[in-house]
Design goal:
By secondary structure, the chain is of the alpha+beta class. It contains 12 helices and 10 strands. Pfam families: Catalase, Catalase-rel.
């Protein structure tokens, strides 16, 4: 019997896939046509809810190879020896747009990497920028609301965007990057990636350091002219997705070199910027880049939905040797990401092939929708127990760190939101500054309230007087005297 016969989902052969069962030639369709009912019911459910953020994305498989011995800093097994290769999967994405939105819009790009290590999966869930707009997760829903559609007009709302940013001066650094040339990468292959947050590495002796991840593209950084980006958005909205797929398909495998910055734990108390504030960077003069390894993408997905759409990432997907920091934004993401996956894909999302660890999984989690493995079989289903069920391994406990103070809602101690943004502006060439200002002016012109424009101009001016003055001039306004 042929192996390619059409069957129902329960494996029964389908006799007719072209005609419904009806009561006579012109009669109504019969409910007994279970194949028809199954096809229609499944079709109605073929779209899981799209991601609230990072809905539009592209992904690829590859490997990570260690090129430098950093075992004195971390006991993570996938980094344990030079030359070691770990399979991985990456998903690139835009942040604000819907699933069908254009690739070439001005937006940060998500840069989410899943390493399939022998100790379970490890996810680095970052962006193509080293900083973010906000530094406390409690502000995230409000921020994303401003990037989405107005509930009345169902249109993007520049007034909401700039109103929020003008009330949140910590966003200035990221806004300056977003509005610069790097706000629209030429392709997904021609941009850097960052873990953005501060993480903790721990070695075999339990000694820790703070780290930041930098994925440097080996293809070089290239960006799109705003007019060409707009043209592509209309003519080929899937330009970045297509470029990545075609490059890998023809054997032009994109690669990134992974570096880390390493900070001694005690430096966190004295560094001139709070090292856990994700709106700030660490100077590479203070903490130079140290090479870790090389990531190569060499295989396209066979099925977009199964591998890209159902892929789930969380900064809380950690392995021994890597721990979290007190970064307030990171702390919120530890919950929010996995919770989003439980809602969108299901409680058993980590059992799907694209997310399933390559090592054996042993726990006491049971049941839930779409439980498609053995569900623990008949083994013991609680812990502690007297039946040799899986037990914790104390050597893999998270290392302690000291905390003090009272429990209350508090902001970061450091509130210099202007120095690093100003430094970035001053690093740019004259032509880069002109394009930055032109991009900002074009984006701010539709803002309805002049007070919002003036408030934001004040932030630019505090970063660099020329920066604020040129934006003000472009908008036909003057820098407020209160900020001069």
């Amino acid at each position: 019997m042929s192996n390619n016969r059409l069957t129902t989902s329960w494996g029964a052969p389908v006799g007719d896939n072209q005609n419904s069962i009806t009561a006579g030639h012109r009669g109504p369709t019969l409910i007994q046509d279970v194949h028809l009912l199954e096809k229609l019911a499944h079709f109605n459910r073929e779209r899981v809810p799209e991601r609230v953020v990072h809905a539009k994305g592209a992904g690829a498989h590859g490997y990570f190879e260690v090129t430098n011995d950093l075992t004195k800093y971390t006991k993570a097994n996938f980094l344990s020896e030079v030359g070691k290769r770990t399979p991985m999967f990456i998903r690139f994405s835009t942040v604000a747009g819907e699933l069908g939105s254009a690739d070439t819009v001005r937006d940060p790009r998500g840069f989410a990497v899943k390493f399939y290590t022998e100790d379970g999966n490890y996810d680095i869930v970052g962006n193509n920028t080293p900083v973010f707009f906000i530094r406390d997760a409690i502000k995230f829903p409000d921020f994303i609301h401003t990037q989405k559609r107005d509930p009345k007009t169902h249109l993007k709302n520049p007034t909401a965007v700039w109103d929020f940013w003008s009330h949140s001066p910590e966003s200035l650094h990221q806004v300056s990057i977003l509005m610069s040339d790097r706000g629209i990468p030429a392709t997904l292959r021609h941009m850097h990636g960052f873990g953005s947050h501060t993480f903790k590495w721990v070695n075999e002796e339990g000694e820790g350091v703070w780290v930041k991840y930098h994925f440097k593209t080996e293809q070089g950084v290239k960006n799109l002219d705003v007019n060409l980006a707009a043209k592509l958005a209309g003519e080929n909205p899937d330009y970045h997705t297509e470029d990545l797929f075609n490059a890998i398909e023809k054997g032009d495998f994109p690669a990134w070199t992974l570096y880390v910055q390493i900070m001694p734990l005690e430096d966190a108390d004295t560094y001139r910027f709070d090292p856990f504030d994700v709106t700030k960077v660490w100077s590479q003069k203070d903490y130079p880049l140290i090479e870790v390894g090389r990531m190569v993408l060499n295989r396209n997905p066979e099925n977009y939905f199964a591998e890209v759409e159902q892929a789930t990432f969380s900064p809380g997907t950690l392995v021994p040797g890597v721990e979290v920091s007190p970064d307030k934004m990171l702390q919120g993401r530890l919950f929010a990401y996995s919770d989003a996956h439980r809602y969108r894909v299901g409680a058993n999302h980590n059992a799907l092939p694209i997310n399933r660890p390559r090592n054996e999984v042993n726990n006491y989690q049971r049941d839930g929708q779409m439980r498609f493995d053995g569900n623990g079989g008949g083994s013991v289903y609680y812990e502690p127990n007297s039946f040799s069920g899986p037990k914790e391994t104390p050597e893999n406990k998270t290392t302690p760190f000291a905390v003090s103070g009272v429990a209350e809602s508090v902001a970061y101690d450091h509130n210099d939101h202007y120095t690093q943004a100003g430094d970035l502006y001053r690093l740019m060439s004259t032509e880069e500054r002109e394009r930055l200002v032109a991009n900002i002016v074009g984006a701010m012109k539709p803002v309805e309230l002049e007070e919002i424009k003036l408030r934001q101009i004040g932030h630019f001016y505090k970063a660099d007087p020329e920066y604020g003055t040129k934006v003000a001039e472009g908008l036909g306004l003057s820098v407020p005297e209160t900020v001069k």
